[in-house]
Amino acid sequence: MSTSADTDEREEGLELKPKFDASGLLTCVATDAATGEVLMVAHMNDEALRKTIASREAWYFSRARNVLWRKGETSGHTQRVVEMRVDCDQDAVWLRVEQKHAACHTGRRSCFYRKVEAGDQLSFVDADKMFDPHAVYRK
Questions:
Q1: How many domains would you assign to the chain?
Q2: Which residues have C-beta within 8 Å of that of residue 78, sequence separation ≥ 6?
Q3: pTM, whole model, 2 decimals?
Q4: Domain span at 59
Q5: pLDDT level of residue 3 (50, 70, 90 thresholds)
Q6: 96 lies in a domain?
C-alpha cells in the first residue's frame, strides 16, 4: 500500500521509482527529438527501462509477443535516446529520440498516420510508406 510519503517522494523526489502497472509495464511515448512529432507508443518492463537507460537505445516489451525487443533489431530503424523523462507519478515514460528511418511497423514514419473524423471515420494523414513491411518482417 502506498503512503503519502511514498507519493511525495515519487512526485517530488530525484530518485527514479517507476510505478509499473499490474502487468509490470509502463507506457512509453517516443517523439522525434528535433521536430516533436509523436512517433509511437509502446510499453516497457523493468528490464526494457534499465536497458534503455544503460544503452541510450530504445528497448520495449511486446505485450502481443511477450518478449523484450530493441527498436530496430529486425528493421534497422533504430531509436537513439536523446532525452528520457518520466511523468509526475512515474507510471509513464517519454523518450525524445533520433529516429533512423520509419518508426512504425507498417512502414510509416509515425504510428499516428490516421486522423479521427466525425462519425468515427478515419482519414490518412502523413501516411506515405517509407518501406515495405512484408519485405522487412518476413515471418
A1: 1
A2: 57, 58, 70, 71, 72, 99, 100
A3: 0.91
A4: 4-106
A5: confident
A6: yes
